[in-house]
């Protein structure tokens, strides 16, 4: 009996620890995100904003996750300044999303800057590469600081353009795929 109570206690402690928010190493002062309904995050809350737009549809769609201590996540899909849909998260989704923001890969990626997506010392290919694809955005906000990234799709990993830093692009695509792999249900 004591062993069962001990195991239950350990499981409960590990679950509550897993739901605590990490302190992220973010560098830039956070801007205003009132255009997507984001106002006043509490101390240590983490906001992850995923966006995408394409040449065919220049308006950016945003998926917004606001992580709070204790395992709570507010989530919604913003299609315009006045239109959003709440996202219903299952317990499995919540746990998956918390695992992402606590993962070493996510934390290590946040050490990169936007400039790291392009090789700086390449002499060839000095012109811009054509933007013929969807542009993907990732913004992470915590404690008044943010990191923002914007780049083209992982299809550019196949490109031979010398300015594309494929190492960083591959890590970016991996982070975006982790979020995309969480299946979400929208409610109206």
Features:
27% helix; 188 residues; eight-stranded antiparallel sheet; globular; alpha+beta
Give a structural overview:
- The chain has helices at residues 2-18, 91-102, 104-109, 166-180; strands spanning 28-29, 46-54, 57-68, 72-80, 83-88, 135-142, 145-152, 185-187.
- It has 188 residues and is of the alpha+beta class.
- It has one domain.
- It has an eight-stranded antiparallel β-sheet, with no helix packed on it.
- The radius of gyration is 19 Å and the shape is globular.
- The protein starts with a helix and ends with a strand.
- Residues 4-17 have low confidence and may be disordered.
Outline of the structure:
The protein is α+β, with helices and mostly antiparallel strands.
| Radius of gyration based on Cα positions | 19 Å
What is the total domain count? 1
Task: Report the mean per-residue pLDDT as an integer.
Answer: 79
Q: Per the principal axes of the C-alpha atoms, what is the gross shape? A: globular
N-to-C span:
47 Å
Low-confidence stretches: 4-17
Query: How many helices in DSSP terms?
Result: 4
Question: What fraction of the residues are assigned to beta strands by DSSP?
Answer: 25-35%
Largest sheet: 8 strands, antiparallel
Q: From the helix content, strand content and strand pairing, which structural class follows?
A: alpha+beta
Secondary structure: helix percent: 25-40%
Which strand order do you get reading across the main beta sheet? 1-7-6-2-3-4-5-8
Sequence of secondary-structure elements: HEEEEEHHEEHE
Give me the count of strands: 8
Signal peptide: 1-18
Keywords: Signal
């Amino acid at each position: 009996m004591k062993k069962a109570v001990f195991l239950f206690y350990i499981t409960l402690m590990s679950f509550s620890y897993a739901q605590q928010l990490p302190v992220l190493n973010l560098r830039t002062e956070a801007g205003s995100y009132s255009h997507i309904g984001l106002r006043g995050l509490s101390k240590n809350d983490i906001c992850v904003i995923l966006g995408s737009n394409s040449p065919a549809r220049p308006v950016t769609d945003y998926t917004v996750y606001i992580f709070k201590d204790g395992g709570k996540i507010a989530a919604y899909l913003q299609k315009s300044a006045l239109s959003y849909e709440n996202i219903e998260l299952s317990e499995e989704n919540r746990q998956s999303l918390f695992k992402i923001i606590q993962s070493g890969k996510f934390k290590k990626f946040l050490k990169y800057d936007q400039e790291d997506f392009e090789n700086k010392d390449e002499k060839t290919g000095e012109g811009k590469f054509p933007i013929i694809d969807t542009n993907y955005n990732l913004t992470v906000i915590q404690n008044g600081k943010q990191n923002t990234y914007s780049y083209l799709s992982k299809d550019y990993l196949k490109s031979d353009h010398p300015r594309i830093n494929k190492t960083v692009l591959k890590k970016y695509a991996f982070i975006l795929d982790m979020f995309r792999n969480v299946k979400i249900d929208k409610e109206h």
